[in-house]
Amino acid sequence: MGHDAGTLTQIQLCIDRLCDPDTWPFLKSLSRQKESMPTLFEIEKEFAQTSVKPPGTTVPRPRSKERIFLHVFSGRRREGDLQLYMEQLFDQLCPDGTSLCVVSVDLVINQQWGNVRLQSTQEFWIKGVLSGWVCGALCGPPCETWSQARYVTASHQQNRGPRPLRDSECLWGLNSLSLREAHQVATGNDLLLFSIDLLYALAIMDGFGVMKHPKEPEDQEKPSIWRLEILRHLMQFPGVELIDFAQGLLGAHTPKPTRLLALNLPLLRARLREHQVTSELPKRSAIGKTAEGVWRTAPLKEYPPSMNRALAAAFCTWFHDHPASTGMTIDPVFADRCRAMISRTFGADIGPDYGG
Amino acid sequence: MDDLAIPLTAKTNEELHQNLCFATSSILDTLRAHAMTPNLGKGKTEILFKPRGAKTQAFRKQLFGPQAPGCITALGEYDLYKVNLVNSYLHLGGLTHYTGDLRREIRRRIAIAHQSFNKHRKLIYQNEHLSMRRRSEIFSSLILSRLLYGAETWYIQDMKTKEYLHTAIIKLFKRLLRCSVEDHISDEEVLHRVTMPAPAVLLRIKRLSYLSSLLNSGTSAHWGLLNQDHAWLDLVRDDLQWMGDQLANSCGLGNPFEHTERWLEIMQFHKGYWKRLIRRAREHSILLNSRYYTCVAAHLRIRKRLQDQHFWGAPHEHQSSNSFPTMPFGCMLCGISCKTFAGEGAHMNRTHGQIHPVRTLIDGTQCGACLKEYFTHGKLKSHLIRSESCRQQLIGRKMQVQPAPGHGSTRDAELHLSWDGRLPPLQAGGPIPLAVCPRDFEQDNMELFEAISLLIVEFEGSDFAHLESEARNIISSLPISPGLFAPELCGAFRAHFIRRRWGMTQGPLLRFNCV
Fold first, then answer.
1. Which residue among B291, B306, B489 places its CB closest to the CB of A186?
2. I need a surface site. Which of A273, B83, B233, B461 has the fewest CB within 10 A?
3. Could you give the 3-state DSSP secondary structure of residue B88?
4. What's the rounded Cα separation, in Å, for the pair A1 and A14?
5. Among candidates A13, A31, A230 on the partner chain, residue whose Cβ is nearest the Cβ of B302
6. Which residue has the higher pLDDT, A12 or A290?
């Protein structure tokens, strides 16, 4: 009868647990199901308020002998592209009998397995990552709907360019757009969300990855993916680093300030610095259209060779530091699909943007 | 003369009644004078009468009370005409209720839609060889057109009916997706997958199309009547604002309230363009819904993966709450969960024979204490739950009857249908029984309270897991709702806490209800 304060507290805790529907298995399922879909604001707030809790101790994951790397939104094959440098450097750095498979995940390579707007395609690649078959990925989701150039052209009434589709309040797209613009924003969101999903999966599986997008603008009113709560949450993962640099220093025709979100690639910053080809930023800008009517930003979608080499060097160093283990095998269907998507044919044209 | 509907209004109920008699006799006399014999039979010529304003209760009793003839009698030059007074009338395929209530009409429309769906279910709507886009198009043409026939004039008065319509349309969409109505798919996902606008948007589109037709009908539309329908006009204003928002960045029409003339001109003289604008607004709303769904679904997918892999950390800000988490419905003895309170009540009744104690005081539709007639068992039950004095009087009289069929039963539904809201509760004549000492029901679950209290009192040592397990066994042995045992547990603990503080080692257990 004579319960002390500590005992009473413990009894109170017992009662609290009894009153929690989640402690009753048959009530748990229904209490979960009854949750309605949260609003975008609510779920973003939840991501903003929640921290990443990495496991205390990590056991090195087994790696297969076939090193699969996804190059998402790779575009056409060309001289000095990432795949070329990765294949060259991999042979030099990893002479341990392993093989490299650089998969070009792009619509121009494969209409089905390169189309990451399809749910089945997204699930296929994410499953590959979560099964530990994919080691790393590079994604540069299209920035056309986020571009700062939209703000520049909007100020000139003559020769008006495309108008802004997002702002700092509506990062996922303005509420009122034309139908074409709404489709464009939906496409942009889908591709970005797949890239983020892929990086989260790689972060969970201790893989490596890079997401490339224009640098965050200083103007707080302008939109940027780096202001998305989900990306800020991803940045909390151990091994995630933000690298700001200008592609102009690596050989691009314009300064092109860029930010990379690098996952588990501690040497990438140094590699980029090593591969600078100039110490001065180019003075040209990429606003408007050329005489042929092509957007000046179109060629800038392709990374300069020097940047590709820097990325390839960082990726191959990761392969070198994470040797393959004998027990790990890849599902043959997945492996065959990946092999079929290694692009060997060099393309002549840069693929069009959604905006043409 | 076919399908003639004449709206009448007056400042008082008496005046309206007079006008009605006069109009009826004049019209029928005119027809007689032209050698026409109008059919005054059931379902052919009928009157819907809605008394409003002062002395409405008395007028209702006069028109619909037990002594009422059920018809309006009008004296004409040629004859004495008797026209049926009804609650609802099927006019031009739409069921009109005298109160403007749309529940029955909506239910009818949904039944028609399901019937049409079943007709070509396998061949078209659930045929996987047809693309979802194609099936949605056919669905819009054949099913939605029937479901929303006349919906442009609907003004749904209560939230319950709005939710009912919304749920019914979502259920139809789910059938189109070939998923069970029981499947837990959010409405947003359903709309995204069928590429259809939300049910509320479907109604908006109907109204906006109708607005153009009204304007084009010129003076033949009853503008005076329409202008008096403030509720409907508010809906139309809201629809125009919605359309303006959807099209704000895709056409130069501007805000409909700032550039009304421009909008009216398009509605009136450019019908084709107006239709295209409506279609554009519809498409835009579908895209907007899909966009939000895609973003939220991706966030939820990532959150779930992080939770499964134990990467999802604690929130930065703790939401402290002293209240217990909301308990779902179910039965602790049977170990089942129910979706609704009604479902739980049905289970408790069928399996464990539990009923609401108030039902033991109901053997008809009249309150035995105040002698008021409530017309349905459900309304009488609500009265006895609310009215403490009537309930306590009946319990004080030790009234214990075989419970009459409860709310939701076939019998009660029949009673509700025959009553149909026409009459207020009627006070019966006769002497009110003498007042007795009031008593009330014992609300709490004494068995559970005593068992848990005893467990806490007799607990010794530090094996709290065992204590919890014992308490779980006690709770699981009783046919009790999950929502009911939390206050009992809390009450038992507080009683014990107070006894300890006061140094009481014996004596009765005090009860404290959890607030």
1. B291
2. B461
3. strand
4. 17
5. A230
6. A12
What angle, 0 to 180 degrees and rounded to 10, lies between the N-to-C axes of helices B56-64 and B13-33? 40
Distance from CA of A252 to the nearest CA of B (A): 33
* Residue B462: per-residue pLDDT: 79
Nearest CA in chain A to B506: A1
**Token pair for residue B71?**
């018809």
Give B217-276 pLDDT, tens digit per residue. 988 878 888 898 999 999 999 999 999 999 998 888 899 999 999 999 999 999 999 999
* DSSP result, A44-83: HHHHHHEEE---SS-PPPP--SEEEEEEET--SB-TT-HH
Q: CA A347, CA A108: separation in Å to the nearest integer? A: 9
| B306 near A CB under 8 A | yes
The sign of the dihedral angle between the CA atoms of B185, B186, B187, B190 is: negative
B472 CA: distance to closest CA in chain A (Å): 7
Helix (H, G, I), strand (E, B) or coil at B224: helix
**Residues contacting B349, CB < 8 A, separation 6+:** B355
Q: Where are chain B's structural domains?
A: 13-86, 100-282, 335-427, 446-501
Instruction: Indicate the average pLDDT of chain A.
Output: 86
Q: What is the torsion angle, in degrees rounded to the nearest 10, for the CA atoms of residue B191, residue B195, residue B201 and residue B205?
A: -160
User: Whole-prediction pTM value?
Assistant: 0.81
Assign domain A65-340 to a CATH class: alpha beta
* Among A3, A19, A47, beta carbon nearest to B324: A19
From A21, A54, A175, residue closest to B288, measured CB to CB = A175
**Direct distance between the N- and C-terminal alpha carbons of chain B, in angstroms, rounded to an integer:** 65
CA–CA distance, B455 with B48 (Å, rounded to integer) = 65
Contact A127, A94 (CB under 8 A): no
DSSP A124: H
Nearest CA in chain B to A12: B493
| β-sheet bridge partners, residue A243 | A260
Closest residue of chain A to B283, computed from CA coordinates: A179
Inform me whether the C-beta atom of residue B246 falls under 8 Å from chain A C-beta atoms: yes
* Amino acid found at B308: D
Intervals of chain B under pLDDT 70: 1, 181, 316-327, 443-444, 497-515
Instruction: Assess B295–A contact: CB distance below 8 Å, yes or no.
Output: yes
Interface test with A, best of B245, B249, B336 (most A CBs within 10 A): B249
Check residue B350 and give its pLDDT: 87
pLDDT digit string (tens) for A91-100? 898 888 889 9
Q: For the beta carbon of residue A146, count every other beta carbon within 10 angstroms.
A: 24
Which H helix or E strand runs over B30?
helix B13-33
- Interval A5-49: pLDDT, tens: 778 888 888 888 888 888 888 876 555 554 578 999 999 999 999
Which residues of chain B does A47 touch, with a Cβ-Cβ cutoff of 8 Å? 299, 303
